[in-house]
Amino acid sequence: MDWLDNIIKTFFDFDAMWQVFPQLLGVGLVNTLVISIWATVIGIVLGMVIAIMGISKTRWLRIPARVYTDIFRGLPAILTILLIGQGFARFSQQLFGPSPYPLGILALSLIASAYMGEIFRAGIQSVERGQLEACRALGMSYGSAMRLVVVPQGVRRVLPALVNQFIAIVKDSSLVYFLGLLVSERELFRVGQDAAVLTGNLSPLVMAGLFYLVITVPLTHLVNYFDNRFRTGRRKATPPKSGLDEVEEQNQNSTTAMTYGSNT
C-alpha cells in the first residue's frame, strides 16, 4: 500500500493543510471575493450597456458592441489579463501605485462584460414582443418600457446564467497571479501555490481547491433552487376534501341544476 501512502502524503497532508488554512481564509479568500465581486459588478454594468447597444436598430451602436463581444469572448482569459496588466502598468502606477490589483479587476471586468452582454441580450430578446407593444399602447416611452418592464423580466430569466458567470469569474481570478500581486493581495490559488512550494507537496493546493468549492457549489445549487421558484411559481397545496365536503358539494351542484331546470 505504498502507493496509497504516497497519494495521502502528496494530496492530503493535513498538517500542511492546517498550516496554510489561516492564510487561505484571511488573505486568499478575501482577495478572491474582492476581485470577483468588483469584476462582476463592473461586468454587469458594462454588459448591460453592451446588450442595449447590441439590440439597437442603429448600426453605429450595434456593430461596435458586436466587435467588442467577439474580441473579449474570443481571446483567452490569460492573454487578456497579461495585455491589460502589462500594457497599462505605467498608467496604473500613476493612479494606484505599484499594485497590479486594479488592472486584474479591469481585465476580468472586460471579459465578464462581453459574456454578460450576450446573456442580457438573450434574456431581453426572449421577452415577448407583446410586452413592449402593450407598454407603448399605454403611453409609455420606449426607454421607460424597456427599463421598467422588459429588462427586469429578461434579467430574471437569465439569473442562472449570471450566477454561472460569477462562478467563472471566481475561477478566473486565479489567473491574476501572473501580474505579480503583492503578498497582502494574493488570492486563493497563489496562497496555495506558494505554500505547496514551501512544503514540497500539493496538499495546500488541494486546500485552496476546497475553498473554491465552498464558494461555487452552494451558489450553483442556490441559483437552481431560485430558478425553479421563478419558473414554476409558488404552488400552494390544496388540502384533500373530506367525505362530508364532497357530499355538500354534490348537494350544491344538484340544487343548482334543479334551480336552473325550473327556471328554464
From TrEMBL:
Sorted UniProt keywords: Amino-acid transport, Cell membrane, Membrane, Transmembrane, Transmembrane helix, Transport
Topology versus the membrane: Multi-pass membrane protein
Entries under CDD domains matching the protein: TM_PBP2 (cd06261)
Pfam families: BPD_transp_1
Major place of residence: membrane
UniProt keyword annotation of Kinase present: no
PROSITE patterns assigned to the protein according to its UniProt record, in alphabetical order: ABC_TM1
Region: Disordered, residue numbers: 235-264
InterPro entries with a match to the protein in the record: AA_ABC_transptr_permease_3TM, ArtM/GltK/GlnP/TcyL/YhdX-like, MetI-like, MetI-like_sf
Locations listed in the record: Cell membrane
UniProt domain ABC transmembrane type-1: residue ranges: 29-223
Domain of life: Bacteria
Family under the similarity heading: Belongs to the binding-protein-dependent transport system permease family. HisMQ subfamily.
Listed name of the protein: Polar amino acid transport system permease protein
Organism: Agromyces terreus
